[in-house]
Design brief:
The structure holds 2 protein chains of 2 kinds. By secondary structure, chain A is mainly α. Chain A has 2 domains: 2-44 and 180-396, no CATH class; 56-167, D-Maltodextrin-Binding Protein, domain 2, CATH 3.40.190. Chain A is built from 16 helices and 5 strands. Chain A has a 5-stranded mixed beta sheet. The relative contact order of chain A is 0.13. Chain B has a domain at 101-167. Classes of the chains: A mainly alpha, B alpha/beta.
Chain lengths: 399, 258
């Protein structure tokens, strides 16, 4: 145990004494904040939904032959239907629930006697024009797309009617039923897993390759190997120190991404995306998952680095892995349709799903527990392999 | 004389790659580096392994220092086997070779403490030893200079000091004076003699005849991984100079003039 600490202290001293290495740790988090602030607003346009064949279901209150026929003639795939028992107009909350449950994509309210009112309306009269209200949820891609489709349709109609009616103009009604949680959850759960996993991996990669393959390359590891410490102590000491440093790097990146994502949304949406919607418990879960993932990364990269005879060779060995990790990270962007617990036994994939789950506020503690346990076991296996490699003269002294 | 080190039938082979086979003009996949080497070393003597490049000197020393495992045979140090209990052997030997480097980033001062700790030396004992050894080799003025910024000679001295932080009974030196200027080389050879005075056993490898003549009590001559002669210096030489005797042995062994 004492030897593990001695090795660990040496590694940490090596690292923290070196400004350049320290910079590689903190920079990614900082950079991502700066870059995203500059990019600002780029994402809002990119978040699309729907599709060619998407059928938009719109719950309708009130009726208008005009709107029905325009919809029919335009060829857009919108189906109106009514809720059978509703006589009263739904309030905003009911509409919101319906949309988030997926019963319908939008809720459209047409005032009574709309067609007649439009015909008789005098734009010069100074009275407010009849108004069509459409409730939608901007954090739901399909709902958002349904809204755009309806809006385009009605705007075209409105122009052809010389602006005799309006759509969504009431200043005191929030037609977008998305809550702060919805928006934040969507954005964070989509981008966080990918960004976090990639930033964690790259911060582990640089340091671990340097610490293991670098020591081999410079011949300094042999000096350690002729001391009476156990190979397992060397492996554990190095992995512990590297994990501490990578965790620090991971946290820097995490904070960077947390602050950067709202910047990326830009404009009005920036205020709607707020990391404070998550509780301390959520963050504690994320921290646990990050820590266990870092252990997997460090021990895996350390094992590969031990097989390489130089830092350069180690980077070559590790880069295909980076690709795999990126692909797994991307899988988090779409969420997983299958949430069966068995999937949470797959290292790294489970981390991505957990991070995504926590940020979209739809995780179960069992998933986190399984993830952390699976990652710890995986890291343990790699530590054992690393110890064996340290013991193998063919691996340690090959030229 | 008390025997402290017994090497018996040490054998080590390395697999050759296709390219190496072409270079060495051979079809054999395996190169025998050390072939059934046996010898003993006594307490309080300097034992020299003399041989040309590629004879297997370094490989032998690496097996004794437990960096690599012999394919066959064993060596015991104070009765402890290098094959069965390498960890215990490591705490009793000091090994110095050019391939063991120190990290450029750290200072001699820090490295001394670091390796003392890994060897389990009490901090108070380590501190005393540090003052003594740093003083002897003139490292004290450079104690806080990063190893990367030290001169080659000073680096070598620091490596030497680090290899004996745990005051081992057996010190194994591979080509101890290689690449050193005459002044530094003298400091090193004086230190080896001093270690002998203190009852330590020194095993060194070299291809320099004068070094053997100057330092060694007993010598083993290795050619092609085999021990062709092993005895006290006068007994091996048999009245000839070591150099003449070596070439005679080499001729007998290889059947040709060197």
């Amino acid at each position: 145990m004492k030897n593990i600490l001695t090795i660990m202290k040496k590694e940490l001293r090596r690292f923290f004494g070196d400004r350049r290495m320290l910079a590689t740790l903190i920079l990614p988090g900082l950079l991502i904040y700066v870059v995203y602030s500059l990019m600002g607003g780029a994402l809002t346009d990119a978040v699309g939904g729907g599709g060619e064949d998407m059928e938009y279901r719109v719950l309708l209150h009130g009726s208008s032959d005009m709107i029905s026929s325009v919809t029919l003639n335009s060829g857009v795939n919108v189906t109106y239907y009514r809720c059978p028992d509703c006589t009263e107009e739904h309030d905003r909350d009911t509409a919101a629930t319906g949309i988030s449950e997926g019963s319908y994509h939008a809720y459209m309210v047409i005032p009574e006697g709309f067609d007649e009112a439009v015909m008789t309306y005098d734009p010069a009269g100074g009275l407010p024009a009849p108004e069509v209200k459409i409730y939608y949820n901007s954090s739901d891609a399909d709902s958002s797309a349904a809204y755009s489709t309806l809006l385009a349709l009605l705007n075209a109609l409105e122009s052809s009617m010389a602006n005799r009616f309006d759509v969504n103009v009431s200043p005191d009604v929030a037609f977008d039923v998305a809550t702060e949680e919805d928006l934040t959850g969507m954005l964070f759960s989509m981008l966080m897993p990918l960004l976090l996993i990639m930033l964690m991996f790259s911060s582990c990669m640089a340091m671990t390759a340097e610490s293991i393959a670098g020591e081999k390359e410079r011949g300094t590891i042999a000096t350690l190997l002729i001391t009476p410490i156990k190979r397992s102590e060397l492996a554990l000491g190095k992995i512990a120190a590297l994990s501490v440093m990578s965790l620090l790097g991971g946290l820097c990146s995490f904070v960077g991404v947390l602050l950067a994502l709202p910047q990326l949304m830009g404009g009005e949406a920036m205020d709607a995306v707020d990391a404070s919607v998550y509780s301390m418990g959520d963050y504690a879960m994320i921290l646990l998952v990050i820590l266990s993932t870092i252990l997997v990364f460090v021990s895996l990269i350390a094992t590969l680095s031990a097989l390489a005879s130089s830092v350069k060779e180690a980077s070559t060995l590790i880069s295909p892995l980076m690709l795999v990790v990126t692909v797994i990270g991307v899988s988090g962007m779409f969420g997983s349709p299958d949430k069966s617990l068995g999937l949470f036994l797959i290292p790294v994939y489970n981390s991505v799903q957990c991070i995504s789950g926590v940020f979209s506020m739809s995780y179960e503690p069992a998933q986190i527990i399984l993830t952390v346990a699976a990652n710890l076991v995986t890291a343990g296996v790699f530590v054992a392999v690393l110890t064996r490699l340290f013991n193998s003269e063919r691996v340690m002294f090959k030229k | 004389m008390e025997t402290i080190l017994i090497a018996s039938g040490l054998r080590k082979t390395f697999t050759l790659s296709k390219k190496q086979q072409q270079l060495e003009k051979t079809n054999q996949k395996v190169k025998v580096a050390v072939d059934g080497l046996s010898f003993t070393a006594n307490k309080g003597e300097i034992f020299g392994l003399l041989g040309p490049n590629g004879a297997g000197k370094t490989t032998t020393l690496r097996m004794l220092a437990t960096l690599i495992r012999p394919d066959e045979g064993d060596a015991t140090l104070d009765g402890i086997s290098v094959v069965k209990d390498p960890d215990a052997v490591r705490s009793r030997v000091g090994f110095l070779t050019g391939e063991l480097k120190l990290e450029d980033f750290f200072t001699p001062n820090y490295l001394f403490d670091f390796f003392s700790s890994l060897h389990g030396v009490e901090p108070a004992v380590a501190a005393g030893r540090k003052v003594e050894l740093f003083g002897k080799f003139g490292i004290d003025h450079f104690a806080e200079v990063k190893v990367g910024n030290l001169s080659t000679g000073m680096k070598q001295k620091v490596s030497l000091v680090i290899s004996v932080v745990h005051d081992p009974d057996v010190i194994i030196f591979d080509e101890p004076t290689n690449g050193l200027d005459v002044l530094t080389a003298k400091v090193v050879t004086d230190f080896l003699l001093e270690l002998r005075e203190r009852g330590k056993t020194v095993i060194l490898s070299t291809h320099i005849f004068s070094l053997v003549e100057k330092l060694c009590d007993r010598v083993g001559i290795i050619i092609d991984g085999r021990m062709v002669a092993c005895d006290t210096l006068p007994a091996v030489c048999g009245g000839m100079s070591l150099e003449d005797r070596f070439f005679e042995l080499y001729k007998d062994c290889k059947g040709e003039e060197a």
